[in-house]
Task: inverse folding
């Protein structure tokens, strides 16, 4: 019995010794990453990582990890301090330079970003990755001419660089300030009405203050023809804050005589955008105010927008809602969307009859695809139903558009 006790005691000694051994620095690093990536607890991750750094101050991978955590939280000053510490101890550290360029770019400081790329290129002259980062930084700050120049210089040094070639095309594309488009829409009804036809020509101009869009619209409805002129602008106020201003005029009875629109858009944390605005339509026999609000969420390649419309009236207030889901592909010019709406107001009041809607619903699909850097094609198909006092109008709509940038 005593022999068995001594045997088990001897066998347990290595286990107890293993339990008493402290974690290695690498094991602490693993714990820190687990806290950040699996638990989402950045504070805990930093505490563990700093404890590991006390034991191994020159373990630069850990300090880079801490800097990235600060950057993801928007604490760019702390991230910068950690990365500069790495570069002071290891002036040739590529990963620290790459991370610091990214941090300075995200912080919105163009001069700091370019200064870091200059420092990196002094150590790694003609380096493709750092030159690409420099071009990308310029591009992200809308410095498209300077970005194009850097991409061209990269191709002189590295002619086979696919990233530089793609970047050059994007920079050149961004310098195209104009676009013109022509669209046609056909509406077919289940009963009573003859088909409606719409044509629209649009000219878009990008300016330093925002975009301006002139539109000439033609409609054939109820065997009547009409033309409307519109001007839409999207002036930038400050970073993440812009407006929508619109005005239109028509002498035709099928269009509003005057129309005005105003909205404010504000970017919010968590990739959200909030909008609130008003629309005014002046018809021959009446005028209408429409209040609208929307909330947009960007998530990966998707955009989700919920929008509401409220139209007060002496005959009864109207309210409706609309949801749009859009999936982007290779660029913002390539996407597919689905949209649906329901309520007592039409989702897009354009004509006098739509003010008197008792109930309505709509469902539509649309897509856009770039045939080249200059040509875009898009299409839309939808169905909707609008209930009036004496009848219900059901419609199928098809729209096609071609655009050219220059």
Result:
């Amino acid at each position: 019995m005593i022999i068995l006790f001594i045997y088990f005691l001897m066998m347990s000694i290595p286990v107890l010794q293993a339990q008493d051994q402290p974690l290695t620095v690498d094991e602490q690093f693993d714990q820190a990453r687990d806290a950040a990536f699996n638990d989402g607890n950045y504070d805990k991750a930093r505490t563990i990582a700093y404890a590991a750094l006390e034991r191994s101050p020159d373990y630069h991978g850990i300090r880079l990890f801490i800097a990235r955590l600060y950057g993801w939280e928007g604490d760019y000053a702390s991230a910068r301090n950690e990365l500069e510490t790495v570069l002071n101890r290891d002036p040739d550290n590529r990963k620290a330079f790459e991370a610091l360029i990214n941090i300075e770019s995200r912080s919105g400081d163009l001069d700091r970003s370019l200064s870091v790329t200059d420092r990196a290129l002094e150590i790694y002259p003609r380096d493709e990755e750092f030159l690409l980062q420099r071009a990308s930084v310029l591009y992200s700050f809308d410095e498209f001419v300077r970005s194009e120049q850097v991409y061209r210089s990269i191709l002189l040094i590295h002619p086979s660089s696919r990233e530089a070639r793609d970047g050059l095309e994007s920079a050149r594309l961004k310098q195209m300030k104009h676009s013109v488009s022509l669209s046609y829409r056909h509406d077919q009804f289940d009963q009573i009405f003859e088909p409606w036809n719409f044509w629209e020509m649009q000219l878009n101009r990008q300016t330093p203050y925002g975009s301006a869009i002139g539109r000439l619209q033609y409609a054939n409805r109820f065997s009547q023809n009409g033309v409307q002129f519109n001007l839409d602008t999207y002036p930038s106020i400050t970073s993440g804050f812009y407006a929508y201003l619109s005005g239109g005029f028509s002498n035709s009875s099928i269009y509003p005589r005057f129309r005005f629109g105003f909205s404010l858009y504000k970017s919010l944390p968590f990739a959200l955008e909030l909008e609130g605005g008003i629309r005014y339509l002046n018809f021959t026999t009446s005028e209408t105010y429409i209040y609208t609000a929307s909330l947009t969420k960007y998530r990966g390649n998707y955009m989700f927008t919920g929008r509401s419309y409220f139209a007060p009236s002496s005959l009864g207030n109207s309210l409706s809602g609309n949801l749009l889901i859009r999936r982007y592909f290779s660029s913002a010019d390539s996407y597919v969307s689905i949209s649906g709406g329901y309520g007592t107001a039409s989702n897009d009041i354009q004509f006098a009859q739509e003010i008197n809607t008792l109930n309505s619903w709509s469902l539509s699909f649309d897509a856009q695809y770039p045939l080249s850097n200059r040509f875009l094609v898009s299409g839309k198909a939808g169905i909707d139903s609008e209930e009036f006092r004496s009848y219900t109008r059901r419609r199928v709509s098809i729209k096609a558009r071609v655009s050219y940038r220059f």
User: Anything to note?
Assistant: The chain has ten helices and 14 strands. The chain has a mean pLDDT of 90.
